[in-house]
Design brief:
The chain has a domain of 65 residues: Herpes Virus-1, CATH 3.30.40. The chain is globular, with a radius of gyration of 25 Å. A three-stranded antiparallel beta sheet has the order 2-1-3. Strands 4-5 form a two-stranded antiparallel ribbon. It has 13 helices and five strands. 52% of the residues lie in helices and 4% in strands. By secondary structure, the chain is mainly alpha-helical.
């Protein structure tokens, strides 16, 4: 007889943050900027309890669309009848892209296409037996009984049919992007041509958000897959817009996040390759944006960390020193920004630590003292509690290093 268990709601622990910082800072900006070319259409939308649809794509009351998966128009027929007069006179270049699967844009919820554990699009969709509830493979493998109903998991089977639907959902959105070179796109059925509105940034934002959700829930393979798609989109756009600084900075951030995925998976060589490419893109950009400076220094520090763990101290020091130079220059121009000062002290500590391990004790002590001086001069208000906690943490480490013999 099947045994059922009463369960408390499952809490999925987040991936612990690195002391070097995160590459998600530029990506958060990427999620907010409305019109940057990254390929595709999906944008994160706020939840709407009164909406029954699930697609994070833009909608327009005069645009109807039939879902090629279900064959349903999801209530668009009425809007089509009432809006025909306006559509005839509309400039085709201003027609917003429509989800090819017919999903509404009123809510960000992806319904059956998402995993309830990581809250991201399903990746390697798997079905529990006997209860038939579906999750990402990496997510459900961490459980012995179903996190949704509490039934004992007797087996896990791949659900290729649902995974094909998820993949078609992503591919369908990839096809809705304006080609600046060609200009026109054929309308399904061959009845005419339409120039979609350039909303390609939104697909990149959508993929990054899915990746960040998956990464926080330790579904690293899913995060890596979505980030790889996003990187491919940006590379494609860069072929026709090589001088686009926004695209280059966003690609640098995405490559850094891919490095984080590989590092978490234990693939140090691939992580270093992604971090180095990230640093290469970002180092060639004007360093007026503090988010860009932070992301560049993080990539350099993480390469240094991996070299340090490998025992290659000279190489580690080289990358730490490059990051230190970036942060020194940032503090010269933005000395009032507390986070930049703390970043500088952290880089000073990293370089000094390597110097000590290389036998350069006097140089190491100078570095530790300079870092302490930076942090002790930094005065933070009560509204900067998180920065104060970080400042004290780094300061404690530095004092311990000076006391160490």
């Amino acid at each position: 007889m099947r045994k059922w268990k009463k369960r408390e709601p499952t809490s999925v622990s987040a991936v612990h943050s690195q002391s070097n910082g995160s590459h998600s800072s530029i990506s958060k900006v990427l999620l907010q900027r409305p019109r940057i070319n990254l390929g595709g259409v999906c944008a994160p939308m706020k939840s709407n309890k009164n909406s029954s649809g699930v697609c994070p794509a833009k909608s327009d009351k005069n645009i109807s669309g039939v879902c090629p998966v279900t064959g349903k128009n999801n209530g668009a027929e009425h809007r089509n009848r009432t809006g025909n007069a306006e559509e005839k006179n509309a400039d085709p270049r201003m027609v917003p892209a429509k989800c090819p699967f017919g999903y509404d844009s009123g809510t960000f919820k992806l319904g059956p296409l998402s995993c309830m554990i990581c809250q991201a699009l399903l990746h390697e969709c798997s079905k529990c037996t006997p209860c038939s509830h579906k999750f990402c493979k990496a997510c459900i493998l961490r459980f012995k009984d179903c996190p949704l109903c509490g039934a004992d998991i007797e087996g896990i089977e791949p659900d290729s049919q649902l995974q094909v639907l998820v993949d078609r959902f992503i591919d369908g959105h990839a096809r809705i992007k304006r080609s600046h070179a060609a200009g026109n796109a054929e309308v399904p059925g061959g009845k005419g041509k339409v120039i979609y509105e350039d909303v390609s940034m939104e697909r990149g934002a959508f993929l990054v958000q899915q990746a960040m959700r998956a990464f926080r829930s330790q579904n690293i393979e899913s995060a890596k897959s979505r980030l790889s798609m996003c990187a491919e989109d940006i590379r494609e756009e860069l072929k026709s817009s090589e001088d686009n600084l926004d695209l280059r900075s966003q690609l640098g951030a995405v490559l850094g996040m891919l490095g984080d995925c590989c590092r978490t998976l234990g693939d140090a060589p691939s992580a270093i390759t992604y971090y180095e490419e990230s640093a290469e893109f970002l180092s060639k950009l004007p360093r007026k944006d503090l988010e860009l400076v932070h992301t560049l220094s993080v990539s350099l520090n993480k390469i240094g960390d991996l070299r340090y763990y490998e025992g290659d101290l000279q190489s580690a020091r080289s990358y730490y020193a490059r990051s230190l130079d970036v942060r020194r220059n940032a503090v010269k121009e933005h000395s009032e920004v507390a986070s930049q000062v703390i970043d500088l002290a952290t880089s000073l500590a990293k370089v000094a630590d390597v110097d000590r391990n290389l036998g350069n004790e006097s140089i190491a002590i100078e570095g530790f003292k300079e870092a302490i001086d930076c942090l002790e001069k930094l005065k933070l208000g009560s509204e900067q509690a998180s920065l104060e906690q970080r400042r004290c943490s780094v300061l404690d480490f530095l004092h311990n290093q000076l006391a160490y013999k």
